[in-house]
Design a protein that fits this description.
Length: about 575
């Protein structure tokens, strides 16, 4: 190889009992560029790791190590036999020299035997009650045994004899829509069980909206499904329907952005070929830094994307020199445009800075003294766009964004709305300026600095924007809270409604929950994010639109669940039932 290969690696489970998806991670560098890092099990390749992961800890402690010398790969141990296996690592450089990182690791695979799916001899339908109330979800469940009485786990099929009165989800959540009667059936392996239900009329004050929340379903589980260490849902779930009727779903993390694909919402599977890799340019004016795909819109031929871009100054003395990731407190945010013409398998971006849609109103100014980044207003710009929604009344496409005003103004964050008639033209977006959509968010490096967008004067959630066809209004949903003086109260997932996308109703609580911010909304004793949920997103599986922008009365709420204070995060969903009194 070139200069001597230096590296180390670990497996992120106790070696005496590994199961499911085993994350194999490490770092490596040498004089030549690293071309590939191959993971081998019992001397047979199981895949190439993703190289270029941030390892500021290595750069700080190992002489000559670049920050992006890390690598990682998820190894599916269910494809291995239970028992002892040897994992080793082979590194190839740009000159095609091959070397190995020393010390293969011995692991013992210990996966539980899968539960048999049949044959099915008996089914039990478990109904907590058969006396239902309009607007209140009840969770039914089913179990099955074989002819010997042993439990089996078939795929159950649920149905309702009267969907106008009661709908039932594929997992058995019962959604009472109107007063009346129906029969609920569950089938598997040629067997069926049924139960009759009666729905009583619901009640509520005229004009009020009731939202009932059903049981959680796990969509992506970090201990089972990641392509690599750090592959977790760090943005709201966005879905589009593809030309063949199948689905693409986005909910990932920079640097490597992995999409999920499936025939329907119950067969989504991670595609471990990245659809996007953060450009991670270390110059603020490029607006191609650390990137998250936050919005998708399918017009039938192109999937348009709004990209959340974070510049964490890796050069300035009082930021975090040598590191451009989110542990660096200096943050300069913008929104850019990317697109896919292959069904979401790859996204591309115009050359810098042509892709920028919403840059901050001023150029980046690094801190001038230690501590300024943490305690002053060095967190500004536009970021975290919602879904894109097409307003058929005026022909414009709308999105909402978070805006933090730059210095020297007093730090202030809020929600702004912007629109365009041409999704493929980043320069065509205009933000609300207080009286019209006339504010062009111009590049402060190439033209005059723009004014700040005019923020909505009332508090609303911001993560999901749709047009609800049942309520006949635009709806935003996501994490928020109320305030009692300086103390946050009633933390959770909220909704707010609008007829014109500018004026919004007071937010209404959907579900109480611990959320990441403010810190007073975090779970007591967690010392961080564990136990919180974030990135709420409304997706109606029955929505006929290609971009799931027009949900109805029975959508799902998707969100990220934080299982610890690090990277163990799952994507989950719950069915909702909306009732307008």
């Amino acid at each position: 190889m070139g200069a001597p290969l230096t590296g180390a690696w670990v497996v992120l489970q106790p070696t005496n009992s590994v199961s499911n998806d085993l994350l194999v991670s490490g770092w490596a560098f040498e004089g030549n560029v690293i071309a590939s890092v191959t993971i081998l099990v019992d001397n047979a390749s199981v895949g190439n790791a993703f190289y270029g992961v941030d390892r500021p800890d290595v750069a700080a402690s190992v002489h000559g190590a670049p920050t992006n010398c890390g690598w990682s790969l998820g190894v599916d141990t269910t494809k291995l036999s239970n028992g002892a296996h040897t994992i080793s690592v082979s590194v190839t450089d740009s000159a095609n020299n091959v070397g190995g990182i020393p010390q293969p690791i011995q692991v013992t695979v210990n996966n539980a035997a899968p539960v048999a799916t049949g044959p099915v001899a008996n089914i039990a339908l478990n109904a907590p009650t058969t006396s239902l109330v309009e607007g209140t979800i009840v969770a039914f469940s089913a179990s099955a045994t074989n002819s010997s009485g042993q439990a089996v786990a078939p795929a159950f099929t649920w149905s309702s004899s009267n969907p106008a009165v009661v709908q039932v989800t594929p997992t058995g959540a019962i959604l009472p829509l109107a007063a009346g009667n129906a029969t609920i059936s569950v089938s598997a392996g040629g067997q069926t069980q049924q139960t009759a239900v009666t729905v009583a009329a619901g009640s509520g004050a005229p004009g009020t909206i009731q939202v009932s929340v059903g049981p959680e379903e796990t969509v992506f589980q970090y201990t089972l499904n990641p392509c690599m260490e750090g592959d977790y849902p760090d943005a709201p779930a966005r879905a589009v329907r593809l030309s063949d009727g199948s689905l693409a779903l986005s909910a990932a993390h920079d640097q490597f952005w992995f999409m999920s694909f499936g025939a329907d919402f119950y067969s989504l599977k991670r595609n471990c070929t990245p659809a996007w890799v953060s450009i991670d340019n270390w110059t603020a004016s490029t607006f191609t830094n650390r990137q998250w795909i936050f919005s998708l819109y399918n017009d039938g031929s192109t999937i348009h994307a709004l990209v959340h871009n974070e510049y964490h100054d890796p050069v300035a003395q009082f930021c975090l020199p040598g590191y451009s990731g989110d542990q660096n407190p200096c943050e300069y945010n913008s929104i850019s445009y990317a697109s896919s013409t292959d069904g979401g398998h790859t996204f591309t971006m115009l050359p810098s800075p042509q892709a920028v849609i919403a840059p901050p109103p001023i150029q980046w100014v690094p801190p001038s003294m230690a501590g300024e980044a943490e305690f002053d207003n060095l967190y500004y710009g536009y970021f975290e766009p919602t879904n894109i929604v097409h307003n058929t009344a005026d022909g414009y496409y709308y999105a909402r964004v978070i805006a933090f005003t730059p210095p020297p103004a007093t730090p202030a964050g809020g929600n702004c709305v912007m629109r365009t008639q041409t999704l493929s033209d980043p320069t065509s977006w205009r933000a609300w300026d207080g009286s019209s959509f006339s504010l062009q968010m111009t590049n402060p490096y190439t033209g005059p600095s723009a004014a700040n967008c005019v923020q909505n004067p009332t508090v609303q959630p911001y993560e999901s924007l749709t047009f609800n066809t049942y309520l006949n209004k635009f709806m935003v949903a996501g994490g928020s809270n109320e305030w009692s003086g300086s103390n946050p109260t009633q933390c959770g997932i909220y909704l707010s409604l609008s007829s014109d996308l500018v004026n919004w109703s007071a937010e209404q609580l959907i579900e109480p929950a611990y959320i990441p911010a403010p810190t007073g909304c975090q779970k007591p004793g967690s010392n961080g994010l564990a136990g919180s949920i974030a990135y709420g997103s409304i997706i109606d599986h029955a929505d006929p639109s290609l971009s799931f922008e027009t949900p109805g009365r029975t959508p799902y709420l998707y969100y990220t669940r934080f299982n610890d204070n690090a990277e163990n995060r799952d994507l989950v969903r719950v069915p909702l039932l909306i009732t307008q009194h």
